[in-house]
Hints:
CATH class of chain A: Mainly Alpha
Mean pLDDT of chain A: 92
Strand content of chain B: under 5%
Structural class of chain A: mainly alpha
Helix content of chain B: over 70%
Oligomer: heterodimer
Number of helices of chain B: 9
Order of helices and strands of chain B: HHHHHHHHH
Largest sheet of chain B: none
CATH architecture of chain A: Orthogonal Bundle
Number of strands of chain B: 0
Structural class of chain B: mainly alpha
Number of strands of chain A: 0
Distance between the termini of chain A: 54 Å
Amino acid sequence: MDLGYFFSDLWISRWAILHGLGLTIVISVLAILLGTLLGIVVGLCLSYGHWSLRWLVRIYTDFLRGTPVFVLILACFYILSVIGIQLTPFQAGVFALTLFCSSHVGEILRGALQALPRGQIEAAKAIGLTFRQAFIYVLLPQALRQILPTWVNTAVEMVKASTLLSIIGVVELLLATQQIIARDYLSLQFYFFAGFLYFLLNFAIEKLGRLAEKKVIYHV
Amino acid sequence: MGYTLNFAPVWRDFDLLLSGLGLGLLLAVVSIMIGCGIGLITAFGRLSRHASLRRLAGTYVTAIRNTPILVLILFSYFALPQLGVRLGKIEAFILTLAIYAGAYLTEVFRAGLVALPRGLREAGLAIGLTEWQIKRYLILPVMFRNVLPSLGNNFISLFKDTSLAAAIAVPELTFYARKINTESFRVIETWLVTSLIYVFACLVIAQGLRYLERRLAIIR
C-alpha cells in the first residue's frame, strides 16, 4: 500500500470531500429537524387523536417503519416526479428521510407520552390549564426528556441513512468518495477514510447526546 | 396528471419479487445466526475481567454502530480484494450484515446477561456444575428467552437492511423492484407493491416472533 500516494490524492480531493461532508451534515440536520417536528405531530395524533385519525396515523407509521429506508428513498425519488412534483434528488431524499424520521420519532413520543402517569394530566386540568397548555407546559417537557436517549440514536441512524442518497445521485460524502475512487482506484483507503469520517460525526453526536442527557437529568 | 395505474407489468414479474423476498429473508436469517455467535462472544468480552478484552469488544461495538452499513458493504465488496480477500457479492454481504448485527446484538446480550439474577450462577455452582456447564445449561437458555423481544426487533431491522444488497447487485427484492421499475416505467405500482411486500413480511415476522415469545415464556 502506497500511503504517500493516498495522502497526496487526499490533499488534491480535499474540497470534494469537505463539500460532501458538508452536504451530509446539511441533509442529516434537515431530516432530523423536519422529521422531529412532524414526528411530534404524529406522536400527538397517536396518543390523543380521534380514533379515526389515530387509525390513519397508525397505518402511516407502520407503513413507513415496515419499509426499508432505501426503498422509501427510491419510491419518493421516482414516484414524486411521475405525479408531477419536480424535486431535485436532494429534495426527494430529504423528503424521504423526513418521513422516515417522523414515523420513528412519533412512535417514540407515543411511548413516552403513554408512560407518563395519568396524574400529570389530571393535575394540569385541576389547575385549569387547557389541553394545549397542559401539553406544552406539562406533558411535552417530560416526554422530551424521556425520549432524549432514543432520539439521539435516531439522529445517528439518520446520518447513517443519508449515505443512501448517494444512490439517487446526491453528491454527499459517500458519492464524493466514490467519485474519487473512480479516478484513482484507491478504494481501500478512501472507503476507510469515509467510514472514519462518518464514525467521527456519529461519535460526536453520541457524546453530545450524553452531555445533553446529563444536563437535562440534573435539572429534574 | 396523466397517469393511469396499470399493475400488469408488476404482476407479470411478481414471482421475481417473491424470489427476491426469499433471498432477502435467507440473507437476514444467515446473518443473524452468525451475528448471534459474534454478539455472544463480544458480550462475554465486554463483561470480561480483563480490561483489554473489555476495551477491544467496546471498540468493535462503537466503531460498527457508528458507521453507515452501506459504507461497510461497499468496503467489504470493493476494498477487501485489495487486501487479497476476494468474496462473492452474497458472501461479502452476509459477512458485512453479520458483523453489523454482531455489534447490535452485543449490547442486547450484554443487557440480558447483566439482568440475570446472581442466584442462577450460584445455584449452578451449588449443584456442582462447571463454569462451562453453567453457561451452557443455565445462563444461555434463560438469557435467550429474556432477550427474545429485542432479538426479534433486530431481526426485523436486519431484514430491512437486506434491501441495501441491491447496491452491490445481489438479486433481492429491491434489486428486482429497480429492474421492473426501469424496464416498465410503472413507477408508482412497482414501489407501492414492493413496500407493501416489505411491510407485510415485517408484520408476519413480528406476529411469528410474538407467538414464539408466548410459547417460550417462563410461566411465573
